């Protein structure tokens, strides 16, 4: 079995409740968030103990006209889907507290 790359790319579109799965949402609707930003993703990842940083100038291929950038997260060998759910839950928790 090959080892996983330490840094995995997370786009804000993965968490957008207004998108369908075919348009880029990767988390289930119950974990999706409205108006998620790269700073929300970075904050949630850091709170969960992951090393995350923002990469500017990159565009999600399905929405090339939008330029929010992307987030690179060191998942420490965990699967991307597990980390996606963890980050989505943490973003939801932090938005409820606001």
CATH topology: Phenylalanyl-tRNA Synthetase, Chain B, domain 1
Structural class: alpha+beta
How many strand segments? 3
Q: How is the main sheet built?
A: 3 strands, antiparallel
- Could you give the distance between the termini? 43 Å
Tell me the strand percentage band: 5-15%
Strand adjacency order, main sheet? 1-3-2
Instruction: Domain count, please report it.
Output: 1
State the share of residues found in helices, binned by percent.
25-40%
Mean pLDDT: 88
Total count of helical runs of at least 4 residues: 2
Determine the CATH superfamily: Signal recognition particle, SRP19-like subunit
Q: Regions with pLDDT < 50 over 5+ consecutive residues?
A: none
- The helix-strand sequence is EHEEH
Reading off the top of the CATH hierarchy, the class is best stated as Alpha Beta
CATH architecture designation: 2-Layer Sandwich
Task: Walk me through what this model shows.
The chain is α+β, with helices and mostly antiparallel strands. It has a single domain (7-97), classed as Signal recognition particle, SRP19-like subunit (Phenylalanyl-tRNA Synthetase, Chain B, domain 1, 2-Layer Sandwich). The chain is built from two helices and three strands. It has helices spanning 38-47, 80-97; strands at residues 7-10, 51-55, 70-74. The protein is globular, with a radius of gyration of 13 Å.
